[in-house]
Amino acid sequence: TKIAFIGVGKIGQTIVFNTVIDGYADEVMLYDIIPELPEKFEHELRHALASKRLKVEILSTNNLDDISGADIVVITAGKPRKPGMSRRDLFVDNAKIMIDLASKLPKKNAGATYIMVANPVDMMASVFAKYSKEFVVSTGDQVETMRLRAYIAKKLKLPVYKVNGFVAGEHGEDAVVLWSTVTVNGKPFSENLGVTKAEVEDYVKKIPGEIIRVMGGTTWGPGTIIAELIRAIALNENKVMSIAIPRQFEDEIIHVSVPTVVGSSIGPTLESLLDEKDRWNLMASMKDFYNVYKENLKQLEASI
Ligand code: NAD
Ligand code: MLT
After folding, report:
1. How far is the CA of 254 from the centre of ligand 2 (A)?
2. 3-state class (DSSP) for residue 1
3. pLDDT, tens digit, 9 for 90 and up, residues 19-77
4. Does the C-beta of 164 come closer than 6 Å to ligand 1?
5. 43 assigned to active site
6. Ligand 2 pocket check: which of 81, 89, 255 to mutate, most ligand atoms within 8 Å of Cβ?
7. How far apart are the C-alpha atoms of 148 and 14, rounded to whole Å?
8. What would the pLDDT profile of 279-298 be if each residue is shown by its tens digit?
């Protein structure tokens, strides 16, 4: 498997590290606009791989033309939010990067699967799809899904594998906990266990902002979770993950997370298995996404 990483800043580096240390990739390609950054990061990775006695080919470059023949392209290039900002505030700046990449990457990477990470991640996936016509998934709410499981497990003093369940909808403030999917010790979630739904939702939505305030960005959580997504695709694992695949909604292709089977082919989604309340909340989240997306596209067009 040949995997390209477009952007090797904070989150890009964490995803790359988790991927190469897994040892299955034949080759990784690293690209960033900062001079020498991909090259110096390549040295770091080689030292880590030497210690692990692993062989993964690495190509690092500041020239996008060198990125060719990838099976999977992971896009983290873009501005991160600062404390107090919403991810949606990054739309115009990061969409311009996506339009540029959409005009260049597909030429030399025919048939690649694109994984969008840059924020607002679902809308960036939709912009990239709109301008490239390529298949792109957004990492979406798989990150929230793991935050939810981690929080419930910690509160209830249980190993995390005893907690199941998914978060869906738009990545961020509008995410929807699919309570009908949440189980603890194999039984449906109940507030009587000692943790409220409101508390869980609050944690899932607020913790990334708190991490950014103190640590300058989120890395280890999403960096591990997104590496698992890359592996599920590369190794055809057919795992259920809450990611966003393209769907037609009115006149646009949009990306809104739903639990989805992820392997070398991606889908189907498990939407039809959700209870009515969760499906209704998900549909409301899609409508809201569509409206905000259309508004943002107008602002983008006015700025270019
Ligand atoms: P960062 O500033 O550390 O890294 C961004 C990198 O992108 C920089 O190295 C920069 O030089 C590079 N870059 C900018 N424009 C580029 C271009 N045109 N081509 C190639 N590289 C380019 O920021 P970060 O913390 O790594 O975050 C990057 C993005 O990922 C942000 O939008 C952030 O919000 C998002 N993010 C998403 C998730 C998620 O769960 N989806 C998690 C963490 C971060
Ligand atoms: C996250 O959820 O960790 C990312 O989307 C980064 C952010 O919160 O801006």
Report:
1. 19
2. coil
3. 999 999 999 999 999 999 999 999 999 999 999 999 999 999 999 999 999 999 999 99
4. no
5. no
6. 81
7. 21
8. 999 999 999 999 999 999 99
